[in-house]
Amino acid sequence: MFEPILANYTPDGDDWTVEVTAAGESRTATAPGLIAARDAADQLVEELVPGDDVRTVVHTLEGDAYQFTSAYLAARLGRPDADPEPAAGPKPADPAPRPRAAAPVREAATGS
User: Which domain of life is it from (predicted)?
Assistant: First the structure.
């Protein structure tokens, strides 16, 4: 039976702790930064299920996959930490600009 692998990340100051659970076993690693912790998770997965060609790893930040994805992409793109909470709803759109009054169209004079 297929069982997903869970990699859960927890911030610890500037470092990150990642715990990978697979096949009823767990392994933990600490890394300096989220990108390094993600790499450490891959290594732990390989230790727990070596040579498994088909595997699904669910990455979570303190149990939340959305927060992990947001934080990981912000780290990869070198952006400041993104707001981990989704927006409450769409922002109201700016009002549409008023159309300008059409200028009279002049026909080009032809020289004959």
Answer: Bacteria
